[in-house]
Each structure stands twice: as structure tokens, then as C-alpha cells.
Design brief:
It is a single chain. The chain is 80% helix and 0% strand. The radius of gyration is 18 Å and the shape is elongated. The protein is mostly helical. Helix 2 (11-41) packs antiparallel against helix 3 (48-70). The chain has helices at residues 4-8, 11-41, 48-70, 74-90, 104-138.
Length: 139
């Protein structure tokens, strides 16, 4: 009989957790894109809703990075922490009327954004691999 802790750390649970984290990360990345699009192209006087979404998404990405580190994927988790910290540093330069260019903040923000898309893909692949491993064991 498995304990609750063993069940939570099983390969099946880990694969499901990776898939769910990847799916939620994809939604968060779409929200990030929408928020930054509004912030950079809208003429509103305040962007409270957009910044609230960005803070929520940053919290989610921090959770994902920490989960990856705790789940044994230290390289992916650590790189995600670096990408998130870099994006937090760079966000001060993102604002209304910003023109894309080779400014360090723009490069950092774009790189971090694409890193999290790649991370979501990697988590989907790891979840798929875990599922295939379970199917082979069952056969």
C-alpha cells in the first residue's frame, strides 16, 4: 500500500502535474502577451488590470520554477528563475509608446518570454514521456 506522499511523488502524478503546469503556463503566457500589448499600444491613463495580470502570471511562473526544482528538474527550474528575475528587471522599460529595438530591456523581456514558451513545450514533452513510460510498464 502506498502512502499519500508516495502517491503524490509517483511517476503518474508527476506526469499529470507537468501537463497541468504546462497548460496553465500557456494560458499565463497568452495573458502576458495581452497585458503587454495593452500597456504598449493603449492610450489609457492606468493599467491596473494589466499589471494585476502580470503580477499573477509572475507568481505562477515562480511557482512553476520552484516546482521544477523540487521535482528534480533543477536546470529547467533554475533557468526559469533567472528568466523571471531578468524579466522583472526589464519590465520597467516596457511602457506606452515603446518602440521595439535592440535595447537590453527589450531583448531580455523577449528572451524571457520565449524561454517560458520553450519551457511549456519541455514540460509537455516530459509529461508525454512519463505517460509513455507508464504505458510500457503496464504492457
Amino acid at each position: 500500500m502506498l502512502t499519500v506522499q508516495q502517491e503524490l511523488n509517483s511517476a503518474s502524478a508527476a506526469g499529470t502535474r507537468l501537463f497541468a503546469n504546462a497548460a496553465i503556463t500557456l494560458v499565463a503566457l497568452l495573458l502576458v502577451f495581452g497585458a503587454f500589448d495593452d500597456i504598449t499600444t493603449d492610450n489609457a491613463t492606468t493599467f491596473r488590470v494589466e499589471y494585476t495580470f502580470l503580477v499573477g502570471c509572475a507568481g505562477w511562473l515562480l511557482f512553476v520554477a520552484w516546482s521544477l526544482i523540487r521535482g528534480g528538474h533543477r536546470t529547467l527550474g533554475s533557468a526559469s528563475l533567472v528568466a523571471l528575475a531578468s524579466a522583472l528587471w526589464a519590465q520597467h522599460a516596457i511602457g506606452r509608446g515603446m518602440v521595439p529595438g535592440l535595447r537590453p530591456e527589450y531583448i531580455v523581456m523577449t528572451t524571457a518570454y520565449f524561454w517560458f514558451w520553450a519551457l511549456a513545450g519541455a514540460m509537455l514533452w516530459l509529461a508525454w514521456r512519463a505517460r509513455k513510460g507508464r504505458e510500457r510498464q503496464a504492457a
